[in-house]
């Protein structure tokens, strides 16, 4: 009986979170916001006020101590009208690293994050490939202090960011350190992402790192967990995006006329619409399975399999759906004047970020079938 | 006759899995494992008896009717273990279709008359829906039943009746009112196949098996009480059954077992280390995993007492097309052996390279073609205007 | 003005290839090579002049009208070399559409008036077919032209007019008889874009370029003699042009150059040794090769003086969908760089990962959507009954 | 001018051959013949009388000395109603080897072949994979004579066959020898092919080989050329098969009624029918290109590329088309009572024989891109 009531309690809580996210989405979000290109601090604050920033943060670190499954339905709501703010990059990826760090520095950063006044980014990637080499950035002891040098790419968010959690090779381990965006020796070159946001190439040249700035000396496992969580969270946003794109496209098919007929009455389009709906439903079940596996997982391999399972499906489904959505809209879908194109652009960005479908399929294969010949 | 009902749902999934696995390894005949095509009754009779003796014939029926009463999660475990051990289907139209239907819409007399003999295997059911000119278009059916005193007199022809040559009974759709519009005036009838005037002609399929039959009805007299539901309301009865059928046709069983076969072949042929193969295999693995997820969602819906909506059609589409893609990859991986009918020798053992491919062909056709399923989803789920 | 006509067809294909290659390497501006998206006139003016000075503007026009008079085989060589060297398109509606049309169906006066200025680049043409409610359904167009003395008075709106902001002239379809059935009562008109009452509004596309325009007509007076063919018979004129267009839209250029870009990326990213990539690349390579074969078959048909049939639609379908699949693989191979707009740095150089993907989007839509093309093939080639 | 008149002369000759093949096909061939399962010696004789057996055989070897391009249109005609006889296996694959051999033995075999009284097979394959190892069969000198031992698989035809051209490893080279089917030490186990024909596993156990039986001491290049020719020839048969399957299916779509409509009027089916037509046309151009490349080729690599180009397309297109043909026919297509299923079965057989689409794509990649990592 305890089990059941726990479950229903959890379901009630999820529903509450989802509803408040949906209300926020309805009130504050519009796909067209992607066109402006910039992060809204008001919306960021709004997300913080919803309590979303601290949802995954353990209670002993001042958070709500909830699980990824509790966040997923809310993210779906935010993804549907194309949330532009870097919630997953800053609040999930960076947030989970900060929560796991447990230093005074991370505690204070986490507090600012929860208040909606901090935008952190994790700088972990050095190659475009998920499975590439990301360990050339070095943390070295010099003159009593520590020094960070290297280059990180695709750092997200790349604009309006207050500081970076940098993964660096120290003494044979991956060390995570905090570097303020305005620290000496930090150079940020932004790159426009497909969705209009910014990702950055960040150069670190002999950046001084104090002992306070070290968030985790041996932080590989922590970073890994945060990445898998963020990957599943991106999938939830993509599911919302898929639902949004399909809704918009079905509306169009139900109203647009060509050849004296509503185009949605053409059987070829109907069958393809069904295939998009199938992609949506597969996406939903893929996330459910990934969430369940992740929450039960006790090792990093299982977590990675869960994340790859979801991202392989969602990255692929989002592109299938949004490409077809453009085709079904015809010419108008290719102009920047119709919002359906924004769904495609956002899909391109989120599909590639943290590994695209092919990369996650390959990782899934490696983890489930063993190394190839 | 059957063992006392047991509360299987009280076991943990893991424990239940162990029980099921032990049951199969103990009782299921070795030579019937991993059958590449549908087995005839004569092969499966012994296993049917075993299931019957242990009360395992009807996993999904409520216990009060002699089923195992498994909740969806347990049912999936049951199916998974069945597949993993390569257990073949018994002739199961009675178990899967007629039983649930009578439990839901039959009279007490019908339940009492028919359910026990399904459980014992004394009576084997086959389906009479399709007709030569009403394949996926069931509403066009023409076989008619005219009331004559206490009997209906049935005339006409059914086709695509799976293994009807082994059936003792048929559940069928007949037209009882020729004046009514297409989907009205249809009734749902239970027919004893030994009634005079019934002729069964097996048809050979592409893969060389006699899996389907044509069944001819010539002045066949069927007692009036053999109707299920009201007269002329058979379309509604059939529709309820169709969503069962779609759930069943969309079950991951076919795709899951095809994927196991593909794995086996990959090992036998050494392709398991080939990166190109691994990429394709992984995509299919994920397709099957998500099919499983979809299936559980719909079965959970049924067990929560919800009616299945038209969206269950996606399960049939995805299940059968995934199955079909796996069959294609099996042929591709077979290389030269893909031209051979029946088992081919590989270094590690023998393997039938074409059976999955052949079995996949009708799967996208029967139970309402996938084209019809897509029409249903477009019209009734996505609310697109009719063509 | 232009160099004396030369018999290019007398050269062997190999010799001609050398001549073309040398021409490009000698004259084509380095900074304009491998342009990821359509270039505006301002960028291409110098190159247009160069082509003009050498008589190379119109490779396919007969020499007596100032073209190069290339036979299909030579034309393919020309296009191949153009692609190989990464030569961008000049604004070419005049060269590809208006020229061949006037040569075939224009009056001597029209040929004399318009052809030379296309060759010099003084006049740049744009297209006025589509309207907001008549995209692929051209017969529904509503822009009307009413005869008033020696002039037509044009009112209405066109859209999807490629680079109309650079055009000095537009060829357009207008409705001249509102009472006639859909495809009748349409005329084909040549319009000077400086005529009062014309407003051009560029539209930004997904990829951020202003590649298409909306064009508004408000009491625009067009001389009566600017009609091509007979009044109310413009549909036939347009149809002749449409098969030219389909041939052009189905040209392997886009897919071929996308495949080169994919090869480049494969080297830059190191994926060229990855077996999974090689498998996918090879499939696309063969798709492009067969597209080339198909294109040659249709161009040979044109050069043999045969009319293109409705089957030319398959060229447009296959060409654009192959192009689109290549764009997809480029994004896939780009991995993380697939999220970046514009050039990304790779170890061996920089590469724009999304441009091909973006360019592929409209290709399956414009010139009659691929859905419309499939309708055409089903109805007019396979003789399937109309829906 | 010579070039043009040569060309038109060739075209006329091709047309003649094609027309007589078409007439033969119309008179003698029916898809349903596949159901009987056995080779018809009357039809075999008929093919010989058409002159097809000696078409590719050089004039100095008593043949017509024509090229593969001259045979292709005729094979298309024969493929359309599903020629069951092993023309390509015996007359092309074996015929070309015999013609290139130039020994008295081969001359006499060639003569019997041309008369339609011999059915030879080439036994070259030992692994299911085209790229596998096919060289375990050994020819060894013993007691003054030579001895053949080994096992060949998928030998086609496997029934009614008079003898085998066996590829064996001799002294570091591939030697081709003739072995009569009834020779001592030969054991033939037939395997039913998908199309009802027979392929055989042939065991050679210390089979005595006389010097006369040696067709080519160093015969690898000859065998290779014959295989590439046979591969292109199979493609031509497959093209005919594709045309036949599409014609039959379009007829069905134009006549069959369901839901009160001719099913060919359903747009979803129309669009898919168009895709089948595209596969057919791509197949035709793929063969043309392969033929042109093959006829111009001066080295084995170019010939292999030409053959792989065609077989990769045709094997794939034939399966796409015949699978869709079954689906479009619905239930009736899955019964053995309708001929459309025979097209699928024949497509399965010819697609796999001499390498399927994936194998030929891989070979094409190897030959054009070099070895993989």
Automatic annotation (TrEMBL), chains A, D:
The keyword Oxidoreductase applies. Its cofactor is FAD. It comes from the Bacteria. The keyword 4Fe-4S does not apply. Keywords: FAD, Flavoprotein, Oxidoreductase. Residues 12-82 form the Acyl-CoA dehydrogenase/oxidase N-terminal domain. Residues 230-366 form the Acyl-CoA dehydrogenase/oxidase C-terminal domain. GO terms for molecular function: acyl-CoA dehydrogenase activity; flavin adenine dinucleotide binding. Belongs to the acyl-CoA dehydrogenase family. This is Acyl-CoA dehydrogenase family protein.
From TrEMBL, chains B, C:
InterPro entries: Acyl-CoA_Oxase/DH_mid-dom, Acyl-CoA_Oxase/DH_mid-dom_sf, AcylCo_DH-like_C, AcylCo_DH/oxidase_C, AcylCoA_DH/ox_N, AcylCoA_DH/ox_N_sf, AcylCoA_DH/oxidase_NM_dom_sf, Mycobact_Acyl-CoA_DH. One of its GO terms (cellular component) is plasma membrane. Its cofactor is FAD. GO terms for molecular function: flavin adenine dinucleotide binding; oxidoreductase activity, acting on the CH-CH group of donors. Keywords: FAD, Flavoprotein, Oxidoreductase. Coiled coil: none annotated. Residues 14-122 form the Acyl-CoA dehydrogenase/oxidase N-terminal domain. Residues 232-381 form the Acyl-CoA dehydrogenase/oxidase C-terminal domain. The keyword Flavoprotein applies. Pfam families: Acyl-CoA_dh_1, Acyl-CoA_dh_M, Acyl-CoA_dh_N. Residues 126-220 form the Acyl-CoA oxidase/dehydrogenase middle domain. Belongs to the acyl-CoA dehydrogenase family. This is Acyl-CoA dehydrogenase family protein.
